[in-house]
Structures are given as C-alpha cells and as structure tokens.
Amino acid sequence: MKIATWNVNGIRARQAEVRDWIAAERPDVVCLQEIKAAPEQIPAELCALDGYWCYWHGGAKGYSGVGLHVSRAFAPAPPVFSHPPFDHEARVVTAEIAAPAGGAAGPLTVASLYVPNGGKDLAAKMRFLDGLIDYAGGFRAEAAPLDRGALVLCGDLNVARAEIDVYPKDRNPRAIGQLPQERERFERLLGQGLGDVARRLDPTNDQLFTWWAPWRNLRQRNLGWRIDYVLASEALAARAVSCVSHREIGTSDHAPVVARFDG
Asked: Considering the entire predicted model, what is its pTM?
C-alpha cells in the first residue's frame, strides 16, 4: 500500500507537475493540500483523475483547500468522503475505504489535512489542533467495537514536531510552528494511538525536511523544516517500510511525502 501527500501551493500553477507525479508514483491514496481553488476551478485534466475516485474540497477566493483521491484498483467500491466538525476554510476531507483490494489494511480511514499556519490567528490554529486531537481520540475509541480499522492522517500540519525537525540556524521556540503549545498538541495527537511514520523509520535523521523558505537556495541545500506528515494507527505504522520526502519533485515550497506499507 502506498499513501502520498503533497502541499502543492496552488493546483492550477502545479497542474502538470501533479499529473506527472501521480502518473509516475501511482499511489493508492493521494492527499493534496493548499490547492487554492474551488472545485469548479480545478483544471479539467485533474478534475477526474484517470483510475481514481476524486474529491476536491476548495475554499473561496483561491485560498486553502484540500483534495483526496483513492485508486479504484485499491478501493473497488466508492469511498465515503466527509468533513469532521472542526473543518473550516476547506482544510479537511476524510475518506472511509470499507474494503481495500486484497485486504491490505482492512477498513481504512484517510484524512487530507491542511492545518492553519497560525501567524495571523494562533487561537484558530489551536482550536483546529484541538479538534483534530478529539477526532483522532474518537476514532480510536470507536475503531475496535465498530470495526473501523486504521486511521491515517496526511498533510501539512504546520508544526515542526521537535528540534530535530528544523535546521539548526532556524530553531526558535518563539517562532510559529515551533511553539511549545503547538508541539504539546502534536504529542497529544500522537497519544491518540498514532505513529509518526517517517520518524519511526528514521529516528535520528535530522534531514527529513519537507518545507523550505523560497530563498538562498535553502531547498537545494536542504535547510528546511519537517511539517508534512503521514501519521498512522500504531498497528499500521508498524508495517511501514518507507516514508520519504522527495525534495527533487516540483516547484511548490513543500515536497511530496510518500509512505509505503507492507502486507
């Protein structure tokens, strides 16, 4: 099973890159963030991706927005797409996949997430993270009795989890994205039975960055932050075999992150 996530920073500006990337990777699940387009503005060649169940959740005025696309080979029956109550500004869509092909993961729920940056409204970001924690906790409580299977949260969480997730010269506990209250919420989110897939696989690697400021060749030098994640229910996270940030792909300020799971 392959699950991929990418903050594209404008789907219309990146339409050819997204098309070519999906054609090359063929993920079972594709999560996109910051599409900056309403559904009717999605380029025709992407609106209904060949071989995928497609869902676009775009905000007004070309702001925010997420997409979630599930391979028809992976999910022969249409997924159930929905939005948790904490969604605002078109920042969350979930897909419930009842029976993935081959029973790869049993029932599976995947969310594409775009957490607010918090620079203009930190309180709104905290409310969003609190809602996400409650959502993950509720899923965990219901998973076994309701046979809901595994949960995977993908996307731009706009929080660098720990010091190792920021290149040294940019570490600042007073910076948005590194604040103690943000990191405390991130750990509470993981406490709802989730594993940080990339960090589990590579616990001491200080080069796992997914975002770079667009100046001084920071991306080419890999001097960035890790703020894009694949978080999975512990049993599924334990089956991950890779979770890679592809900084060579595309012209967004974020890289795609692709996770592979065994079995």
From this structure: 0.96
